Amino acid sequence: MYFTDRGIEELTERRGGETVSLEWVADRLRDFVDDNPEFETPMERFATWLARLDDDED
Q: How far, CA to CA in Å, does 16 sit from each of 8, 27, 40?
């Protein structure tokens, strides 16, 4: 298990039963970057990765 998996596991345990919109997730990502500007690049990469998951691979 990676160190980051602990946070993912906590998220699943605490909020796994909730239904949220992608707009809500995007707002939370913006809030996070506002509070933690040093994570702007990783959050941008993560958001881009999520947005392109269904794109055909070349």
A: 10, 18, 25
Tell whether pTM > 0.85: no
Kindly give, in sequence order, each residue whose CB lies less than 8 Å from that of residue 24, ignoring residues fewer than 6 positions away. Answer: none
Confidence band, pLDDT 50/70/90 cuts, at residue 2: low
Structure-token pair, residue 45: 């990469």
Secondary structure (H, E, C), 3-58: HHHHHHHHHHHHHCCCCCCHHHHHHHHHHHHHHCHHHHHHHHHHHHHHHCCCCCCC
